[in-house]
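Whether sequence alone determines local backbone shape is best considered at the level of individual chains. The sequence in question and its structure tokens are set out directly beneath this paragraph.

===
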Amino acid sequence: MIKSMTGYGKAEATIGSRKFTVELRSLNSKQFDLNVRMPSVYKEKEMKLRNWLGNEVVRGKADLGIFYDADSSEKRITLNKKLIQAYHSDMKEVATEIGQSDVDYMSLIMRIPDVLRPEKEELNEEEWDEILKLIKEANTMFQGYRSQEGDGLQIDFEARIKIIMDLDASLEAAIDARIMRIKDRIKSNIDEVIEPGKIDQNRFEQEVVYYLEKIDVTEERVRLAANCNYFLENLRNGDAQGKKLGFISQEIGREINTLGSKANDSDIQRVVVQMKDELEKIKEQVLNVL
């Protein structure tokens, strides 16, 4: 079964006094591109986390977000008391010297850099272990979403490949009719310049066969069928990859194009156009396959 590059997973839990939320999502991309958003206290774990996610996500533009709602009792900012006292003393001294007594010192001091500073938080390994469980839970949901999307893609691929193969089978009558028209046209053209009784039938048959061989599409149709079956085989054997399916679809397109260029027949061309339409839809969807 195939997987889509599009995925989404979310997990939530309360760890200590904080409610954590982990979200993992991805969209299609040629390469693996991961963006991680997490509190700075856990940044030392980011590289190891990226390596693990690289093996899980494999390909696509992915975003991992780790967020938490802090408890109201948590103290996040500390006051630099010594610095505040020093500024207050200096301001008061200057205000006295210039005769200014009605001054809101604290309002001025709180605007000065470094007066308020974030409280430095230490990494809690036990807390990180619980967060890692949440990440893995989100990844499980993420992979399930990818598989579900992949099931839909597989059904679509199988239906469109079947349409292409059915269209190819429908060419039999048109190809037989084309051969008869070509024979009649060549015979008619020869009759215009050579008297009917003077035509060498063996030579005539040889020329017809030579011409028909040049526009024969049997080889292209055999390769087209083989590539379509190979596409389906890769879909169903569990080893399907988006890039590989893309290469096979290119080979299918090559045979369809050659079939169209050698057709020399309006009925066959109409069928070829329908094949190309189905193949373009396959190529668009292959870009979403992992």
Q: What stands out?
A: Residues 7-73+125-146 form a domain with the Ribosomal Protein S5; domain 2 fold (CATH 3.30.230). The beta strands are 7-15, 18-27, 32-37, 60-69, 77-79, 116-118.
